[in-house]
Amino acid sequence: MNRTLLPTLFGVFVSLLTIWAIHSYVLVNSCLAKGGDYDYPNGQCLLENDTIYQHDSTSIIMVFYVIIGFSISFLVSYLIRKLIKI
């Protein structure tokens, strides 16, 4: 097995957990702060009067997720490689 595979996989796993935490903080908490209920299967915020709240900067958030994901994945895998000297 390739010796650099495990640090890369661990970096991807850490970046996915980070994106999940950021997503929960940004979208779900803003929905709950508006008095809505977040529908996880559909990824929508349902307000009290059955309207769907759309976050204004959804495309910007997606670009931010990609940048954060690549950055954290690279940084974690780099640090692990340096730590175990691969």
Report on the architecture of this protein.
With 86 residues, the chain is mainly alpha-helical. It has one domain. 65% of the residues lie in helices and 9% in strands. The chain has helices spanning 5-33, 58-84; strands spanning 37-39, 44-46, 52-53. It has a 3-stranded antiparallel sheet with strand order 1-2-3, with helices on one face. The longest helix is centred in the first third of the chain and has 29 residues, at 5-33. The relative contact order is 0.21.
Summarize this, please?
With 86 residues, the protein is mainly alpha-helical. It is 65% helix and 9% strand.
Assembly classification: single chain
Helical coverage, percent range = 55-70%
The total number of structural domains is: 1
Along the chain, the helix and strand elements come as HEEEH
Q: Give the distance, in angstroms, between the N- and C-terminal Cα atoms.
A: 13 Å
**Strand residues, percent:** 5-15%
Low-confidence stretches: none
The number of strands is 3
What would you report as the Rg, rounded to the nearest angstrom? 17 Å
- Report on the biggest sheet: 3 strands, antiparallel
- Spatial order of strands in the largest sheet: 1-2-3
Overall pLDDT confidence: 86
Category from helices, strands and their pairing: mainly alpha
Q: How many helix segments?
A: 2
Shape: elongated
